[in-house]
Write a structure and sequence with these properties.
Largest sheet: 3 strands, antiparallel
CATH architecture of the largest domain: Orthogonal Bundle
Shape: globular
Number of domains: 2
Distance between the termini: 69 Å
Order of helices and strands: EEHHHHHHHHHHHEEEHHHHHH
Strand order of the largest sheet: 3-4-5
Helix content: 40-55%
Strand content: 5-15%
Number of helices: 17
CATH topology of the largest domain: hpI Integrase, Chain A
Oligomer: single chain
CATH class of the largest domain: Mainly Alpha
Structural class: mainly alpha
């Protein structure tokens, strides 16, 4: 919970529908954000996580209003919104992790500086020596866009009210256009960075080290109990061998696995009433059937029979991966802790080791395999799209083939340079 008392809670209906709600300090849902979510986001059939991300942006906006002691309802009634300086402060706030915004609020509440003259620039300067890392530019853009859209929605609702005169309508509309343009001008761009620094898969040496460390019998395995050691090894193997997303992995049920056929069905089950997890993991793509190697089948079968079956809570459901203490379906938070532990306790592993990087690694291996087999590019795109659950026309593959494309481009460039030199066209 933030110092201002805001928090995001997910409500679960009897039919399994999950709806994140922004709560105020009184423990009740905030009316305008809730109505905005229902009419503008949920109505477009957006996923639960998308709604929660949107509410986090709106939460930052409300923190901005409180920090600067801005009565937005009063300003709307007066036909005005924000000054350029206030928009600049809002944009700066949207760049910070929420935990650092909380720190600024706590400092403000305990210090002598009044909230009404609060300056994020002063906070940034004071904390500069601590090297506060801003959130990724994509998240900054998402925050600013949702705040912009929320402000436009508030203005539209105000203009639809009765007894709104033409003069007032004009003034408020112009104020909204000013704010919209100012926020758009502050959206970060990554155009100058190009291909440098973009996420790629693990190099072969890092893969070997990861597989060595998470081995059940490895002395460097950071977990002590047998269930965690075996389960976490199996999780890494599923991610590495199949290239599935986190939500897809955590949503796999034992009933989805056909050991006679050697395959698993990845299914999207949004708002599943039988899933006890409030923050339900889910697949983002189409349902599809993936083959399982005999090695992966044997590992999975051993986990189910020898380790998972010993936990009483695991008998109440058929989700494959379960927690080590009570056997309930493994949560997103517990899943993330696996990689937090690997990064903190295994210094030989990459510092940026996350679950999704194994998805990039799978794509690198798949590209290499298709090249070895001499598969045509169009056919390769179709098979890759099927395995990932994308449509055949999807351009998502470009996100996961950066290393392969770069390597092919560099190899081609070197061959051209070598050919020119060997043919004597340049001395």
């Amino acid at each position: 919970m933030t110092p201002m008392g805001y928090q995001i809670k997910t409500l679960v209906a009897a039919n399994g529908e999950r709806l994140p709600i922004l709560m105020g300090s009184d423990g009740l849902p905030l009316f305008e954000p809730t109505l905005f979510v229902l009419t503008e986001i949920r109505a477009r059939n957006r996923a639960t996580n998308t709604i929660a991300d949107s509410l986090r942006g709106i939460l930052v906006f409300y923190l901005f209003l409180n920090l600067n002691r801005i009565d937005l309802r009063k300003r709307l009634a007066e036909g005005r919104l924000f000054s350029m300086g206030e928009i600049e402060n809002l944009a700066r706030l949207c760049r910070l992790p929420i935990k650092h915004i909380n720190s600024a609020i706590i400092h403000n509440e305990t210090g002598s500086v009044a909230c009404s003259v609060y300056s994020m620039e002063k906070y940034r300067q004071r904390e500069a020596s601590k090297h506060i890392k801003e959130i990724a530019s994509t998240f900054i853009s998402a925050r600013l866009r949702i705040v912009r859209d929320y402000i436009k929605w508030l203005v539209s609702n105000r203009l639809l009210q009765d007894a709104v005169g033409n003069e007032y309508r004009t003034v408020l509309s112009e104020a909204c256009q000013f704010v919209t343009s100012a926020i758009n001008a502050r959206l970060p761009t990554d155009g100058k960075r190009g291909y440098l620094g973009e996420r790629e898969g693990l190099v072969s040496g890092s893969v070997k080290e990861l597989l060595r460390i998470i081995g059940f019998d490895s002395q460097d395995n950071p977990w002590q109990d047998e269930h965690s050691r075996f389960r976490n090894e199996l999780i890494i193997l599923w991610l590495y061998y199949l290239g599935v997303r986190r939500g897809e992995l955590l949503g796999v049920r034992i009933s989805n696995i056909d050991f006679r056929k050697g395959s698993v069905i990845i299914v999207r089950r949004a708002d599943d009433p039988t899933d006890p997890r409030k923050n339900q993991p889910n697949a983002k793509t189409k349902a599809r059937e993936l083959p399982l190697s005999q090695f992966l089948q044997d590992k999975t079968s051993t986990y189910i029979v020898k380790y998972r079956s010993t936990l009483p809570g695991a008998r109440k459901h058929d989700f494959l991966f379960v927690s080590s203490d009570h056997g309930y379906p493994l949560s997103i938070t517990s899943f993330a802790k696996i990689f937090n532990t690997l990064r903190s306790k295994c210094p030989s592993l990459p510092r940026k080791l996350f679950a999704h990087i194994l998805r990039h690694t799978w794509h690198d291996r798949y590209s290499d395999e298709m090249d070895k087999r001499g598969v045509e590019e169009e056919s390769e795109k179709k098979t890759r799209s099927y395995l990932m659950g994308w449509s055949e026309t999807s351009r998502t593959a470009a996100t996961y083939t950066r290393r392969h494309i770069r390597k092919r481009a560099q190899d081609a460039s070197l061959r051209m340079q070598t050919d020119i030199t060997q043919k004597g066209k340049i001395q």
